[in-house]
Amino acid sequence: TDQLSRDVLARVVAGARVSLSVAALSVALSISLGAEVGLTAGYLGGWVEAFLMRLVDGALAIPRLFVLLLALAVWERVPAYALVLMIGTTGWFGTSRLVRGEVVRLRELAFVRSAEALGAGRWRVIFRHLLPNVSGPLLVAASLGVGEVILLEAGLSFLGLGIQPPTPSWGGMILDAKGVLVTAPWSSIFPGLAIVLTVIAVNLMGDALRSAAAPEAA
C-alpha cells in the first residue's frame, strides 16, 4: 500500500487505463491531423504545399513541452479530454512532413496517374489511392508516438499539470510518492517500472512494424 493505505497494484492497473487512453487518443488525433495536412500538401503542391509546410516549419521551431506547460499553467485543473486535445493538437507536425514526403513520391507513380486519367477527382485520389499507401509509415509513427506521449503525460502529471488526483495515473503516483521515497519506495518503483516497460514494449513494436513495412531496409 502507499502512504494513504491505497493498493499500489490496483492503482497501477487503473493508472494504465488512464495513461494508455490519453496516449492512444492523443496519438489518434495527431496522426489524423498530420495525415490530412500531409496528404493535402503533398498532392496539391504549389502554393498550398508551400503555405502548409511553412506553417509546419514554424510550429516545429517552438518546443512542444514549452507550449504545453504554458497552456496547462493557465488552468488550475485540466480535465482529461482537454489534456488529450492539447497533446494531440501539438504533436502532428512531424507526421505531416512524413506523409507529405511519401505523397510527393507516390503522386508521380503510374497508378496515381492512371486514376487521374480515368477521371478520378482529387479527393478520391487522395483517400482512395494515396492514403492506403502511406498507412504503413503512419502506423509506425503512431506506435512510436504512443511511447512518447506516455512519457509526456507522466512528466506533466508528475509536475502536477496532467491528470489530477484522485484519478490515478503513473506520473501522478510517482508525484504522490515523492515524500515517502525512503520509507515506502515501492510506491514509486512500480508505476515507474510500468512506464519504462510500456514505453520499451511500444518502441519495440514500432521497430517491428517499421521492419515489416520496409523489409529491404531491415
Tell me what you see in this structure.
This protein has 218 residues and is mostly helical. The chain contains nine helices and no strands. The longest helix is centred in the N-terminal third of the chain and has 37 residues. The N and C termini lie far apart (45 Å).
Keywords:
218 residues, elongated, mainly alpha
How many distinct beta strands?
A: 0
Number of helices: 9
The topology string of helices and strands comes to HHHHHHHHH
Mean pLDDT: 84
Oligomer: single chain
Q: Categorize the overall geometry.
A: elongated
CA(first)-CA(last) distance: 45 Å
Query: Which spans of ≥5 residues are poorly predicted at pLDDT below 50?
Result: none
Instruction: Report the β-strand fraction as a percent range.
Output: under 5%
Rg, rounded, reads: 21 Å
The helix content, as a percent range, equals over 70%
* Helical/strand content category: mainly alpha
How would a crystallographer describe the biggest sheet?
A: none
Brief summary:
By secondary structure, this protein is an all-alpha fold.
Would you spell out the secondary-structure blueprint of this structure?
Layout: H1 8-44, H2 46-60, H3 64-72, H4 80-89, H5 93-106, H6 110-117, H7 122-158, H8 170-176, H9 186-213
Helix pairs in contact: 1-2, 1-4, 1-5, 1-7, 1-9, 2-5, 5-7, 6-7, 7-8, 7-9, 8-9
